[in-house]
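Following up on my earlier thread - several people asked me to post the actual chain instead of describing it. Fair enough. Here it is, all 92 residues.
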Amino acid sequence: MGVDVSVDDFKNVVQPDLTVILTLSHAVQMERLKKRGMTIGDERAIHMQQEVATAFYNNALEFNIAFITIDTKFSPCSCADIIVAAAKAIRQ
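Reply from S.P.:
Thanks for posting it. Predicted structure:
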């Protein structure tokens, strides 16, 4: 937030084999934030989340980054099973 960066700043970052994106509905997210207490950072970021998600998706598609999106309505075990299956699929 407010820090200037350039593409060159990231040229040595190794691209992962698979990026896992955990998502949550806005309603559930707000409920969880209210329970734990919203920080100043939460209040600033909550309105930018869709913009950040859209930018990531566009970059992932443009640069051919392998990723999966999992809605965290699933149990942790189910999420882990989905991740393992996706990792196996990209190695084939």
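Residues 7-91 form one domain. That should answer part of your original question.
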